């Protein structure tokens, strides 16, 4: 239900006009391709990706001898699907251990929905019967620790905190010790989103990882970057910067229920090679879904 609602809202974005444009066009010509190009760029797909994309469409129209604009719809969907997969099997499930403790790091700048996303994932795994621990590693932003603490209480999971300004690695040290000793299944670690100083960010994340890896050598099992879908190209540059700072294994794309134009899904995957793992569809703890590219693409034309 929620997912459908989210997709419905997503449809109000720029890509939602695709179906209308195709159905009211009389022929496939340069004007139509220009119009499509504009829509794709407006939808945050990214200029480079769009140029590639339009070239492929033109080629296919020629080789298949397609003349009816409505027939472009399936071709566009197939092409978007190919762009997203990029020849791989993209698994949106988290790559966690079947047994024993799994560790997930969350990175992203302030305000994107990182805290809320951690709470949502904690809630989902708790519901599956997993023992979940949070580590309040954003000791930099005033109030971030307290905010995560509120969520931990609301969701009913445990949390390790230290005062604002503490060394985040010290939080990780305590959290990983506790998680191991008390048989937790999942440790979700918040981090500070200080992109302004990439060297500091890199060092801080590296130090946190070292501390965690001393106890659990193959951790973190996922590093999830949280991006606000409504910020468009800004989100893309954040993604590039975080990718340079650390190994990002997946993206949580938040606020897809808002004014997002949807195309950022393709841009993130195509330009950065990172899969979308979850989408955020609201402010509530249940408003998070595992990302499904097929459903997503169908949603755009529904
Ligand atoms: P953080 O600074 O990255 O930790 O961001 P927060 O988790 O505090 O979220 C910032 C704001 O975005 C809050 O008002 C959240 O309720 C809101 N938010 C988070 N995720 C979503 C989402 O998927 N949809 C909508 N509409 N709002 C969201």
TrEMBL record:
<keyword id="KW-0675">Receptor</keyword>
<dbReference type="InterPro" id="IPR000897">
    <property type="entry name" value="SRP54_GTPase_dom"/>
</dbReference>
<dbReference type="InterPro" id="IPR042101">
    <property type="entry name" value="SRP54_N_sf"/>
</dbReference>
<dbReference type="InterPro" id="IPR004390">
    <property type="entry name" value="SR_rcpt_FtsY"/>
</dbReference>
<dbReference type="InterPro" id="IPR003593">
    <property type="entry name" value="AAA+_ATPase"/>
</dbReference>
<keyword id="KW-0963">Cytoplasm</keyword>
<dbReference type="GO" id="GO:0005886">
    <property type="term" value="C:plasma membrane"/>
</dbReference>
<feature type="binding site">
    <location>
        <begin position="108"/>
        <end position="115"/>
    </location>
    <ligand>
        <name>GTP</name>
    </ligand>
</feature>
<dbReference type="InterPro" id="IPR013822">
    <property type="entry name" value="Signal_recog_particl_SRP54_hlx"/>
</dbReference>
<dbReference type="GO" id="GO:0006614">
    <property type="term" value="P:SRP-dependent cotranslational protein targeting to membrane"/>
</dbReference>
<keyword id="KW-0378">Hydrolase</keyword>
<feature type="binding site">
    <location>
        <begin position="190"/>
        <end position="194"/>
    </location>
    <ligand>
        <name>GTP</name>
    </ligand>
</feature>
<keyword id="KW-1003">Cell membrane</keyword>
<comment type="function">
    <text>Involved in targeting and insertion of nascent membrane proteins into the cytoplasmic membrane. Acts as a receptor for the complex formed by the signal recognition particle (SRP) and the ribosome-nascent chain (RNC).</text>
</comment>
<dbReference type="GO" id="GO:0005047">
    <property type="term" value="F:signal recognition particle binding"/>
</dbReference>
<feature type="domain" description="SRP54-type proteins GTP-binding">
    <location>
        <begin position="275"/>
        <end position="288"/>
    </location>
</feature>
<comment type="subunit">
    <text>Part of the signal recognition particle protein translocation system, which is composed of SRP and FtsY.</text>
</comment>
<feature type="binding site">
    <location>
        <begin position="254"/>
        <end position="257"/>
    </location>
    <ligand>
        <name>GTP</name>
    </ligand>
</feature>
<dbReference type="InterPro" id="IPR036225">
    <property type="entry name" value="SRP/SRP_N"/>
</dbReference>
<dbReference type="Pfam" id="PF02881">
    <property type="entry name" value="SRP54_N"/>
</dbReference>
<keyword id="KW-0547">Nucleotide-binding</keyword>
<dbReference type="GO" id="GO:0005737">
    <property type="term" value="C:cytoplasm"/>
</dbReference>
<dbReference type="InterPro" id="IPR027417">
    <property type="entry name" value="P-loop_NTPase"/>
</dbReference>
<dbReference type="GO" id="GO:0005525">
    <property type="term" value="F:GTP binding"/>
</dbReference>
<keyword id="KW-0342">GTP-binding</keyword>
<keyword id="KW-0472">Membrane</keyword>
<dbReference type="Pfam" id="PF00448">
    <property type="entry name" value="SRP54"/>
</dbReference>
<comment type="similarity">
    <text>Belongs to the GTP-binding SRP family. FtsY subfamily.</text>
</comment>
<dbReference type="GO" id="GO:0003924">
    <property type="term" value="F:GTPase activity"/>
</dbReference>
<protein>
    <recommendedName>
        <fullName>Signal recognition particle receptor FtsY</fullName>
        <ecNumber>3.6.5.4</ecNumber>
    </recommendedName>
</protein>
């Amino acid at each position: 239900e929620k997912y459908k609602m989210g997709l419905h809202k997503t449809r109000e974005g720029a890509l939602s006009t695709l179906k209308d444009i195709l159905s009211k066009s009389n022929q496939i010509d340069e004007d139509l391709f220009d119009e499509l190009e504009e829509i794709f760029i407006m939808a945050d797909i990214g200029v480079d990706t769009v140029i590639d994309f339009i070239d492929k469409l033109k080629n296919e129209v020629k080789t298949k001898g397609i003349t009816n604009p409505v027939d472009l719809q399936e071709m566009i969907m197939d092409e978007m699907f190919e762009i997203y997969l990029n020849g791989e099997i993209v698994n949106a499930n988290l790559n966690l251990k079947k047994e024993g403790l799994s560790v997930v790091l969350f990175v992203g700048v302030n305000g994107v929905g990182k805290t809320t996303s951690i709470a949502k994932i904690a809630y989902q795994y708790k519901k599956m019967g997993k023992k979940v621990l949070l580590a309040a590693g954003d000791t930099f932003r005033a109030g971030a620790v307290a905010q995560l603490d509120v969520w931990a209480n609301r969701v009913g999971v445990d949390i390790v905190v230290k005062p604002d300004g503490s060394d985040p690695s010290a939080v990780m040290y305590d959290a990983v010790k506790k998680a191991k000793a008390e048989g937790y299944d999942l440790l979700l670690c918040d981090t500070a989103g200080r992109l302004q100083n990439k060297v500091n960010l890199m060092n801080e994340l590296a130090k946190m990882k070292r501390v965690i890896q001393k106890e659990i050598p193959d951790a973190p099992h996922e590093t999830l970057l949280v991006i606000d879908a409504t910020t468009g190209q800004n989100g893309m540059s954040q993604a590039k910067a975080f990718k340079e700072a650390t190994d990002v294994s997946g993206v949580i794309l938040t606020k897809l229920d808002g004014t997002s134009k949807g195309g950022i899904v393709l841009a993130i995957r195509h330009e950065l090679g990172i899969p979308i793992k979850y989408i955020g569809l609201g402010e509530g703890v249940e408003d998070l879904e595992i990302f499904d590219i097929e459903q997503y693409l169908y949603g755009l034309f529904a």
